[in-house]
Amino acid sequence: MLILFSSSFCCGESIDSLYREIRRFERPRLVDVNQLLLLLDAEGITDTLIHHNRQSRQLEMLKDVHMNMAACYYEHAADMTATMQAAREAERVGRQDSDTAFVAEALAYQAVAASRMGQLDIALEATREELLLDSLSNNLPYLSRAYNTLAGLSLQAGHLDDAKGYIMKAIDMERALEDSSHLSVRYGVAAEIYTKAGEPQRALSFAQRAYELDRQAGNQINTARRLSQMADIYSALHDDAHAENFYQRSIDILRNANEQKSLTINLKQLGQLYLRQGKTQEALRVLLECEELCRNMNNRYTLQQACRLLAGACSSVNPQRSIAYLQEALLLTDSLHSERSEQLAMELRKSQGDLLIEPAPPVAASGSVWRTLLLLMLAAALGMVCGVWWRRKREKGESAEEEEPADEEKTADEEKTADSQSKPAGVQSTTESAADAKPKERGGAQAPRAAAGGPQVLPDKGLRKEDIEFLTKVAEIYDQNLGGGHFSIDSIASEMCMSRSQFTRRIYAVT
Fold it and tell me: What 8-state DSSP symbol labels residue 47?
């Protein structure tokens, strides 16, 4: 039976079913608890095989069940709604058992799950409470982790001064530890914070320290990522020679290590650098390699970005191919957005079923505004593509000499600008801070604006003041830029000081 259940997370469906059965009772059957823990151990969730007997306390059994299920949902299923629910159950039982360290661990899982869902206020609240509990025991590794998480969350929220303070506290604590294995991660997060704060020289200093630590530790993948991070900073400084050198060094290491996901990001970044320098042939070479790798890996997110850059690179040498790349980029954008919408809808239906997390009531007015916004943007983008195609066709009939339409040049330039304004892919703070913020598992291994005036969003009793202010700001930005021909979701996210993915998550979390 164990063999039947331990192949993959199709096993996860069986584990999930058993967990739901256990949750139906305040005093679950001993045999069900042991069977669930056995299956979780087979999946590599628990560090040691836990077996309870008739003398085991019910609260201790439930603590093991809920905490390990939070780890299971987070690491194996990437189901953040279920992770949050299990972690809240673990917190409830831990408070019943007066287990402070256990409650702090449950709060850490809630923080990282809320962060992944774009619920930054919930994540910040949970992490601050976790920090308070960890302070009671003066556990430096846990405190360092909590401060690092707060720094990453503050960066996402655009609170750069708070982020600076938190990350420096985390760095100081990590330096005081004999085993400072996470110090390079702290330096990496600091590098991104200071890059975002417009202090590239200090950011570069932190990135260099992180590089030296990872190099000394023999971690090739992280070393390559640090090189990429430094390349991004040099690019921000317009030191193109150093930026190109560091990208190339990172690419060589990643090729040898066969780390294709990071390799595609570096190739895309290098191609963008070449385009900025006007080196069209070099840009085409690396971007075509990036495209091929992305298609082989079915990496549609990076492929979408590569297609946008390829559209710009081909605009002067092959206009028809440029239009094809632009059309594919738009289709990929729509596909990724639809997929994420369906995933969020499934999570919402699941949470409305038998999970304890209650979603905020839908806001008809705000949801309608957002749906209209998306449709208008998509229509504008498709209209732009059709307009470019028609002008090219008409110009071909009027003159044998092909001239590039001014609008197409402007489109390519603005697309490159938008891409360069987005978060540098080589800077790994979201990944690093989330991974490092992952809570401790049971065996001890470390796991994880408001504006006055403008268009008004109708208040809803289910929304908090911060949510109403957020939607009002979005509506204001939309109203101000509605006449712009190239305004996009990325533009809104940038003005909200968010990445596209963070902005999308926050919109769906609110509406």
Answer: S
Does residue 415 have a pLDDT over 90? no
For 215-258, what is each residue's pLDDT tens digit?
998 989 999 999 999 999 999 899 999 999 999 999 999 999 99
Round to whole Å and give the CA distance between 12 and 28.
20
Residue 95 has pLDDT above 90, yes or no: yes
Q: State the angle between helix axes of 260-277 and 406-421 in degrees (0 to 180), rounded to the nearest 10.
A: 130
Least confident of 15-29, 146-160, 285-299, 440-454: 440-454
**Shortest CA distance to 436 belongs to which of 104, 63, 108, 100?**
108
* Ramachandran bin of 238, using left for φ above 0, alpha for ψ from -120 to 50, beta for the remaining angles: left
Torsion of CA 431, 436, 438, 439, to 10 degrees: -170
Is residue 125 within 8 Å of 163, Cβ to Cβ? no
- Taking the C-alpha atoms of 16, 19, 25 and 31 in order, what is their torsion angle to the nearest 10 degrees? 130
Tell me whether residue 378 is exposed, middle or buried, using C-beta atoms within 10 angstroms of its C-beta: 0 to 12, 13 to 18, 19 or more: middle
DSSP 48: S
Decide if 268 contacts 288 (C-beta within 8 A): no
In the predicted structure, residue 329 carries a pLDDT above the cut 90: no
What is the Cα–Cα distance from 155 to 315, expressed in whole angstroms? 36
Helix or strand (DSSP H, E) at 95: helix 80-96
pLDDT tens digits for range 479-511: 666 544 455 677 777 777 777 777 777 777 776
Q: Is the pTM of this model over 0.85?
A: no
Please report, for residues 18, 280, 332, 350, 396, the alpha-carbon distance to residue 13 in angstroms, rounded to integers and kept in the order given: 9, 50, 30, 14, 58
| Burial bucket for residue 348 (CB in 10 Å: 0-12, 13-18, 19+) | middle
CA distances from 502 to 54, 118, 350 (A): 47, 6, 22
- Whole-number Å distance between alpha carbons of 466 and 228: 36
What is the Cα–Cα distance from 103 to 64, expressed in whole angstroms? Answer: 12
Per residue, what are the HEC states of 325-355? HHHHHHHHHHHHHHHHHHHHHHHHHHHHHCC
Contact between 283 and 314 (Cβ < 8 Å): no
Give the pLDDT score at 92: 93
pLDDT score at 376: 52
What value does the mean pLDDT of the chain take? Answer: 75
